[in-house]
């Protein structure tokens, strides 16, 4: 892993639960989300046990530490679920490059590959590449592009 100058590294800190909490006084938030006030750790653990839930340290940096009575497994599940929503879906995109002066065999070869990609549910990107003076004859390139689009119409939509 390379670290750039000025880059901040975030370390995923694990939440401390039940017996892992080492402070004497805690600010307790009950399972309904209401503040129960500042109590000793023993009272917090007793209330969590009574509710059949876990005592989770939410913020250890404040004084006193903020702890909440919550189902820890549910908290972790929701955290993972939220993380999954953030990550974008990976769509595989295949690209085919064609030129305006493409020979028939090369055209058929690229068309066959495009058909395979579309049959396998890939997204297809077709790039029309012009070199040098070919840019002056855009109409030839557009004809080749339209032809390929018509040939592939039965496999997907444009």
Strand order, main sheet: write it out: 2-1-4-3
pLDDT below 50 for ≥5 consecutive residues: which ranges?
A: none
The chain-level mean pLDDT equals: 82
Overall SS class: alpha/beta
**Radius of gyration, Cα only, in angstroms?**
30 Å
The tally of beta strands, per DSSP, is 6
Shape: rod-shaped
Tell me roughly what share of residues is in helical segments: 25-40%
The description of the largest β-sheet is: 4 strands, mixed
Spatial gap, N to C terminus: 41 Å
Q: Total helix count?
A: 4
Plain-language structure description:
The chain is α/β, with parallel strands linked by helices and 158 residues long. The protein is 35% helix and 22% strand. The radius of gyration is 30 Å and the shape is rod-shaped.
What is shown here, in short?
This protein has four helices and six strands; from the N terminus they run ββαββαβαβα.
